[in-house]
Write a structure and sequence with these properties.
The protein is α+β, with helices and mostly antiparallel strands. It is built from 8 helices and 27 strands. The strands form 5 sheets. The chain has a 9-stranded mixed sheet. Strands 1-13-12-26-27-14 form a 6-stranded antiparallel sheet, with no helix packed on it. A 5-stranded mixed sheet has the order 2-3-4-11-5.
């Protein structure tokens, strides 16, 4: 028996050493591959109007033709995480044979699909590979554009139940490109750069990105500034900001919609607005279990728009959460409830954003 336990302990030790060695080897390979990343091979020579669909003028999808001839919807969220293929859509479209498996960070098993195995339209740009998100099949990096397949959890269930969803396009779909989101005319254009000479115009401002020591963006969450009641507030540019309405919220807004386009603000500012402006409309527990306030006027890129709905979020969401992927601590996010009044152009290369009314 002692001999058995000795052999078992030795075997466990060897396996542990092999695992640790594999982990550090993958980390070393990741570090080398990060330096070799290049831009996606996508034609940026002229503006292209993409097929799209807007939800009440506040949030939008890109319409995609699949390799099997179906049309699916890609929800566009500049404030979102990694781009994903929703598991429910895989079953619906019979794409199970295209599901692959890989390893992230040398330990975490993940599922993914190649973008080219899903989307056939070459007008639609593929997501870039985030430098902080390298996946491998054993030691070989997956170099083609891919879509992560997330596990089904409560957040994904809620999101899928509140809106149609096949693909989720997060930050890495927008990076290294320039976009015009014309909320007024409900159009989405790509390849619409902003010249650096425009940065001094009153309706143009710099956007910030989290960068590495080489001054290269490692995440694609843009920080910008809005103005409320004379106070400038740093926020996330968040096209996908969504308020999931409670039953009370549906009654408050006289709608049967499960969700609406929104914006978010830190609790500290929300409470200050409530104290300073008791006349501003206030909807308690209208956003699932959170409160909503209606701000009559918000200045965005020199344009005064409103009213704009903001849902309350804990300060820690920004100071401890979003700071991991942003260049500064912001106090909220500006989404469709404010952007719907504007034509917005954002250039991830020149790091500029322009707002036209």
């Amino acid at each position: 028996m002692k001999k058995f336990f000795k052999i078992l302990s030795l075997s466990v030790g060897v396996c542990l050493l092999l695992f640790i060695g594999f982990f550090f080897l993958v980390k070393e390979l990741d570090a080398k591959d990060i330096k070799g990343f290049t831009k996606t091979n996508y034609d940026e020579s002229k503006p292209v109007l993409l097929p799209s669909s807007f939800i009440n003028g506040e949030r939008f999808y890109i319409k995609l033709s699949t390799t099997k001839g179906d049309t699916i919807l890609g929800y566009c969220d500049t404030g979102g995480g990694i781009s994903m293929m929703i598991p429910y859509a895989i079953d619906k479209l019979n794409l199970q044979p295209n599901v692959n498996r890989a390893i992230f960070m040398g330990v975490m098993p993940v599922k993914y699909m190649l973008f080219s195995d899903v989307v056939s339209d070459n007008k639609i740009p593929p997501p870039i590979q985030l430098r902080s998100r390298i996946i491998r099949r054993l030691f070989k990096r997956v170099s083609e554009p891919w879509l992560l397949i997330p596990p089904i959890d409560e957040d994904l269930k809620m999101m899928s139940q509140s809106m149609p969803l096949d693909i989720f396009f997060g930050q890495n779909f927008f990076m290294e490109k320039s976009w015009t989101i014309d909320y007024i005319h409900r159009q989405v254009w790509i390849n619409t750069p902003i010249n650096a000479s425009e940065q001094d115009k009153p309706n143009v401002q710099k956007v910030g990105f989290k960068k590495n020591a080489d001054k290269v963006s490692v995440y694609g969450h843009p920080s910008m500034t809005i103005e409320v009641d004379g106070e400038k507030i740093d926020v996330l540019f968040d096209t996908g900001a969504t308020i999931v309405l409670s039953e009370k919220g549906k009654k408050d807004f006289n709608t049967t919609e499960k969700s609406i386009g929104g914006s978010f603000i830190a609790t500290s500012i929300f409470d200050k607005w409530r104290k300073d402006h008791p006349d501003w409309k206030y909807y308690q527990k209208a956003d699932y279990n959170a409160d909503i306030i209606e701000v009559p006027k918000v200045k965005i890129g020199g344009n005064e728009v409103g009213p704009v709905l903001f849902a309350k979020r804990p300060d820690e969401n920004w100071s401890k959460g979003m700071i991991q992927t942003m260049d500064k601590v912001v106090k909220g996010a500006i989404g469709g409830s404010g952007l719907k009044y504007l034509k917005v152009t954002i250039d991830y290369n020149s790091e500029l954003i322009k707002f036209e009314k």
